[in-house]
DNA sequence: CTGAAAGCGCTAACAC
DNA sequence: GTGTTAGCGCTTTCAG
């Protein structure tokens, strides 16, 4: 591999001159520059990125760390972060935290291969974040509330979301409402559940233990849990699934047993993933402000990178998007007559 | 930022000893090692990744380059590449080629910030690929046929796909079949179109110019073009959309005009994106073997990285997945009686 | 305008 | 086992 040294030699100039010429410094004579460029081309010279980063001790790159690069949910988020990065003249790389402590993500953080990071990955411990972040290595954590030096957090108001979802069901006359939760250790899930409880209590409704089930935030979990619920006989009139994936699985289960959504059972989800609007019936759900949060995360990161003051935690509002998977009980009974 | 030098000094050992201790070389005494580790912890020492890469002149990382990180189509591909990378002990970063020559992607390639790359991004020119690839910087290009030193390619048999799709329609008795194409400069599109033509000619059918329209591979394009077609009056009995996105837009247009898919018009797509199975009616389409191609790309890259021989181009088969958007003309006419 | 030289932080011979 | 040292390839003073 040709180095700048080779280029300089071939062009018959000093290394520094070659460097200047290559990086377009204006003080090299046009003729010299041309010579260098020619030599570079001839040698198929490629500058070595690390050497440069090492010297500059800056990478001009930020990382977006996700649990699973292949998850389809993040598209909007990724896009907005990307836009912000681009408009700040920074590069963005995405990497996965699969593999926990050994993952690419953790390596990137620990070894400072980037100038800062946005992390949306629950399998990275708070400890790692706290240890890695510092004023010259800012991190924006999403969906968790850890803060510290150089570490700020953005969360979405899941409690409010849970409340809104449940309230929507109650407002439509539902009294028996099941909650299908995600993993027990999930902070998001807990918030959504708390919102659910608040709405239920406020309306003087009771949560039935047998209608609180866990589907682990995955489609198949929602499916299985719903099947189980149906086998037990007594059914709720509405189900609040902790996320859309589970709701999609749930709807499938419901329809397989020849019940109809929303005629027999109303369903509401959470997230508003892309699929939500395409399934049948289109899913009423709580929309996560992906675009806003990505964009906010990006901006905050750059503010920190530029040593500007930022708050250390942000909470984003959430909204209900009404589609066709919830029907009011009055309407349902009317149509039965 | 503490460097290894600081650690060594605090621990009272030489730099090399510190380095050995930190990287777990077995020849340092347990006690020394402990001292070093303790010092490192105290200083909150983080090793500098570039310095290491520079020294080692290897990064243990490969890049997956996509046009748009936020595209949802690639999930399966990303996952399979990720699996292969992980199981080879390599890290994977994904980056976007948005921004063309100035993009992160091109920078990563030119500056060799990784050991090799898989690129699925049409806005990166063949030239860049050819220039950057070399025996010690292998690149696997997907969806294009450029090859060169250290550069191999994987394509999916689009011609066959186009043929199969069209043939499926013909086998269902359709004679007037429209083709909605993607961008004119798209290689994929061309292949699919050729397959379409081959099937048409083989069946002695004629392509009508007015039924060959371009929807630019986007949903809205499919929608508009279909609307236009419908306004012109005479309708085909089936439409082959160059990709699923356009088909989804097209179906919307068709239904807005109170026609039904597949009762009035049969529709077939290409790609088998996740949505395809969820829309109404579920879309019959040609499945791209995303998982297989990702996995193949990964394996080939590692073979090249390990200086093993590989072919320089691979072509993957494609299969039809039959769902509900195509109906045979006999069935249709029967139901009209 | 050009050249010599000092490192950036780390690894890996090599010598003790 | 541990210390010394020579770079990896580049940028960037500082002299000339």
TrEMBL record, chains A, B:
One GO molecular-function annotation for this sequence? transcription cis-regulatory region binding
What PROSITE patterns does the entry give? Answer: HTH_LACI_2 (PS50932)
Q: What UniProt keywords apply to this chain's record, in alphabetical order?
A: DNA-binding, Transcription, Transcription regulation
Entry-linked SMART domains: HTH_LACI
Q: What taxonomic classification does the UniProt entry list for its organism?
A: Bacteria, Bacillati, Bacillota, Bacilli, Bacillales
Record bears the keyword DNA-binding: yes
Instruction: State what protein this is by name.
Output: LacI family transcriptional regulator
Does this UniProt record's set of keywords contain Chaperone?
Answer: no
HTH lacI-type domain mapped to chain residues: 2-56
Q: Which SUPFAM superfamilies match?
A: lambda repressor-like DNA-binding domains, Periplasmic binding protein-like I
At the top level, the lineage of the source is Bacteria
Q: Which PANTHER family match?
A: HTH-TYPE TRANSCRIPTIONAL REGULATOR GALS (PTHR30146:SF109), LACI-RELATED TRANSCRIPTIONAL REPRESSOR (PTHR30146)
């Amino acid at each position: 591999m040709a180095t700048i040294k080779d280029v300089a030699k071939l062009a018959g100039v000093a290394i520094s001159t070659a460097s200047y010429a290559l990086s377009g410094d204006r003080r090299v004579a046009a003729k010299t520059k041309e010579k260098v460029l020619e030599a570079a081309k001839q040698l198929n010279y490629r500058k070595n990125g690390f050497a440069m980063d090492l010297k500059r001790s800056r990478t001009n790159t930020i990382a977006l760390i996700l649990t699973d690069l292949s998850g389809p949910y993040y598209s909007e988020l990724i896009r907005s972060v990307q836009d912000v990065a681009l408009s700040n003249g920074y590069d963005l790389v995405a990497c996965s935290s699969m593999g926990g402590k050994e993952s690419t993500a953790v390596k990137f953080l620990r070894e400072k291969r980037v100038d800062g990071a946005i992390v949306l990955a629950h399998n990275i411990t708070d400890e790692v974040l706290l240890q890695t972040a510092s004023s010259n290595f800012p991190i924006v954590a999403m969906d968790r509330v850890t803060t510290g030096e150089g570490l700020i957090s953005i969360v979405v108001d899941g409690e409010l979301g849970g409340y809104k979802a449940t309230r929507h069901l109650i407002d439509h006359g539902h009294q028996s409402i099941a909650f299908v939760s995600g993993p027990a250790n999930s902070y998001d899930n807990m918030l959504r559940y708390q919102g659910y409880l608040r709405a239920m209590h406020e309306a003087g409704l009771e949560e039935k233990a047998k209608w609180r089930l866990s589907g682990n935030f995955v489609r198949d979990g929602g499916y299985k849990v719903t099947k189980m619920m149906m086998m037990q006989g007594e059914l709720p009139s509405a189900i609040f699934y902790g996320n859309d994936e589970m709701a999609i699985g749930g709807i499938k289960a419901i329809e397989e047993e020849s019940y109809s959504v929303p005629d027999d059972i109303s369903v509401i989800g959470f997230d508003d993933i892309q699929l939500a609007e395409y399934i049948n019936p289109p899913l009423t759900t709580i929309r996560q402000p992906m675009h806003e949060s990505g964009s906010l995360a990006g901006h905050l990161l750059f503010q920190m990178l530029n040593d500007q003051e930022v708050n250390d935690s942000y909470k984003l509002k959430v909204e209900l998007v009404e589609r066709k998977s919830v029907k009011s009980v009055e309407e349902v009974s009317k149509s039965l007559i």
